[in-house]
Each structure stands twice: as structure tokens, then as C-alpha cells.
Design a protein that fits this description.
The protein is of the alpha+beta class and 283 residues long. The chain is 55% helix and 14% strand. It is built from 13 helices and six strands. The protein has a four-stranded antiparallel β-sheet with strand order 4-3-6-5, sandwiched between helices. A hairpin with a 2-residue loop joins strand 5 and strand 6.
Length: 283
């Protein structure tokens, strides 16, 4: 009996806690369980059966075989692939650090939500909605040039359809339709909500997407919101405020430097810059 028991221990030890191995890579019980957590909820009942887990494990093994093949071919060393792997790694780290920060410096207490809601009750009881059109340019100079044409009387809609790099709205003369606070990036919202009269045009506005010119085309009032209705957007707003402050600190700590002057000469891979000579000839 002791010999049988000892043999079982030795056999179990040989597996080294993994459920499968492809080359030198091992799929451990822990990693297998973590992979099962990633499946959609409707698929989980299938994994509660042994046959389901067997089929799922076979799928992971097949994926691992193809990954090993990719490594054998040196695909993981190709520059474009390394860039994508780095981007995925950074995205995972970003998600994890944000989750950790939400438990610490970015944590929003109930008292903060209540205080913000009370101070901004007028906004939530009668939240304004804006309707605007915009023209999005790739550079400040391009936006300034378009703005000058608007001031000279050229149709905003025409300039939007011809010049805006936001092709989804350009086809509609730049129309974005109605939106409330919290729907757009802060820089865009701030500029839009400063416009008072229908037809007013903003100066050039910089956001993470480029340089905008905004035209106010409509204004209305949305349905009132209770604190519970507004909770998510309040948390998002307060978290953004705290994050902005935190980033100012870490920009100094990590000695961040950004060369914005190089951007005018860096285009998206799909963008073909206009050749000045051809542009002049077309005129």
C-alpha cells in the first residue's frame, strides 16, 4: 500500500502542477482557471462540465502550438510585431495601475459625490444640452487658416465637408448633434458651453484629437438627473480632476518632455499629404 501511495506522489510530482505543456511553456492549473474567468458569462455553464473544460483546454493547447510555431519562425522578433506586443503590454499595465489608483489616490468617497451634486444641483436639475458643428484640423495652422475663411464669409458647412479630418461629421457639414456635459472631452466641452448665441464660432480649440473650430447650432434642456442618475459621470469627473493633478506630479518626477513641434511632419499611415505643386495647379 505504501509503495502504491509513493508511486502516486511521484506521478503527481512529475506533472509539476501543469495541465498541459507545449515545448517549454506550461499551462498551469492557475493559468487555466484564469483563462476560464475571461470567457463570456453565457459560456460558463459549458465549462462546468468536464467535457467542456477538455474542449476549452484543447483550444488553448492549439493556440499555444501556433504561438510556438510563430516563435520558431522568429515572428516575435519582427519590429512591427514587437511594437504591437509592447502596446498590448502597456495597455494591460495601464488598466492595472488605474484599478490600483482607484483604491488609493483616485478613490472617490460618497461624501465627495454628495458635495459635488449639491453644489451643482442647478446643472443636474436642468442640465443644458448643446448642438454644435465642428471642423477638425490636423494642425493649428490649418485650423487658423479655416477660421480666417469663416470670418471672411465662407460657409462653415462647406469648409467642414472639404477640410475636416473627422470624416463622419464632415459629410454632415460638421454636425455633431446634441450632447450634454460628460459626453465629450473636457477641452471641447468647455469651449462649446462658452458659446452663447446660435451661430457663434469658437476660436481654435486644442484637444487630444487635434484642433477644432466649433459652431453653436442649437441649445435645449435635458431631463433632470437625481444623484444616483448622475453618480457615474460625477465619479468620472472627480476622478479625472484627481488624475490630472497626479499626472502633473509624475510628469515632473519622470522628467517628461514632449516635442510637439515635430507633429506637423508626422502623419497617420493612411494619410497622404497634399503636394503643394499639385494643389496650386488644381487652382
Amino acid at each position: 500500500m505504501k509503495k502504491i501511495f509513493l508511486a502516486l506522489i511521484l506521478i503527481a510530482g512529475c506533472t509539476d502542477g501543469y495541465v498541459a505543456r507545449v515545448g517549454s511553456d506550461k499551462i498551469t492549473e492557475g493559468s487555466f482557471k484564469n483563462r476560464m474567468l475571461d470567457v463570456p458569462t453565457y459560456y460558463r455553464g459549458f465549462l462546468e462540465t468536464e467535457g467542456g473544460r477538455r474542449q476549452y483546454l484543447e483550444g488553448i493547447v492549439n493556440e499555444s502550438i501556433l504561438v510556438e510555431l510563430a516563435k520558431a519562425k522568429g515572428i516575435h522578433r519582427r519590429p512591427e510585431v514587437r511594437d504591437r506586443i509592447k502596446a498590448l503590454e502597456d495597455q494591460i499595465l495601464l488598466e492595472q495601475v488605474v484599478e490600483e489608483l482607484k483604491k488609493g489616490p483616485l478613490k472617490i468617497e460618497e461624501a465627495e459625490i454628495e458635495e459635488y451634486y449639491q453644489k451643482n444641483q442647478d446643472f443636474y436639475l436642468h442640465p443644458p444640452r448643446m448642438r454644435v458643428s465642428h471642423i477638425l484640423a490636423a494642425s493649428k495652422d490649418e485650423a487658423a487658416n479655416v477660421l480666417a475663411q469663416i470670418k471672411d464669409g465662407v460657409s462653415f458647412s462647406k469648409l467642414a465637408s472639404e477640410n475636416s479630418i473627422d470624416r463622419n461629421t464632415a459629410q454632415k457639414g460638421g454636425d455633431i448633434d446634441y450632447f450634454e456635459r460628460g459626453d465629450m472631452v473636457p477641452e471641447f466641452e468647455e469651449a462649446a458651453f462658452k458659446l452663447q448665441n446660435i451661430g457663434d464660432i469658437s476660436p481654435v480649440v486644442k484637444t487630444p484629437f487635434g484642433w477644432h473650430i466649433i459652431k453653436l447650432t442649437g441649445r435645449s434642456t435635458a431631463v433632470s438627473k437625481t444623484k444616483e442618475d448622475a453618480r457615474d459621470e460625477i465619479v468620472q469627473f472627480l476622478s479625472k480632476q484627481k488624475l490630472d493633478g497626479l499626472l502633473v506630479f509624475y510628469k515632473k518626477k519622470f522628467n517628461v518632455k514632449v516635442n510637439y513641434d515635430r507633429l506637423p511632419h508626422i502623419y497617420p499611415p493612411w494619410y497622404i499629404p497634399k503636394e503643394e505643386g499639385k494643389e496650386e495647379n488644381s487652382k
